[in-house]
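From the shared-data thread, chain only:
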Amino acid sequence: MHVKRLVALTAVIGLGLIAQSASANTITYDFIGTPSFTGGLPVSVSATFTTLANEVQVSLTNNQANPTSVIQNLSDVAFQLSAGTSGSISSSAGTERSVASGGTFTTGASVSTGWALSTNGTSLFELNVLGTLIGPAHTLIGPPDGANVYSNANGSIAGNGPHNPFLIGPITFDLAVPGVTAGSTVSSVDFSFGTTDGNDVPGSPVPEPTTLLLLGTAMAGLGAGARWRRRQPSQQS
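Structure, as tokens:
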């Protein structure tokens, strides 16, 4: 009887996990827990994707504080969708930031990112600033140091005319993608950095907090059931 109760408890928790997975439409990719480098310099970004009916919302943040070089700035993100083969940018927004010689900066207004969306006729999508009218400006830069200065910035950032202004995150995109639903998934996310092609780093999916909570609850339930069985006196026939 006790085993049957434990199996029933596990089944209920499992159904909860399935229901949560089916209703989830947001996933985040980043490098947290997996240090990544490009050109010998550390990079750290996060991207959150939300799928809705015929729509994908994307939020990008550069988490690498006080960068040394523009090679640490995000300029491209590629991803695959489980549905949809074409799309367009309905709107985008980011806040401009200009870094002067010496690392001081001024923060401007929220503007359109100027990034472009491309597809290859399949499920692969790419948001990219290089090759657009605004590039090589509007790459996504991280925050300054604790003194609110980009003290590490070299000449590719500080006072660099073509590369300024940058964008400070999060920058957001609202994409119109026919065929996408709330149940569509995002996978194979790759980030690119700097103002030349080829600095690609794959991202890792981050488990949702609710999923982690349910998994923890399941493990706790299994452990409690096992302890409860051990406390019961054995019954001899």
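The first strand starts at residue 26 and ends at 30.
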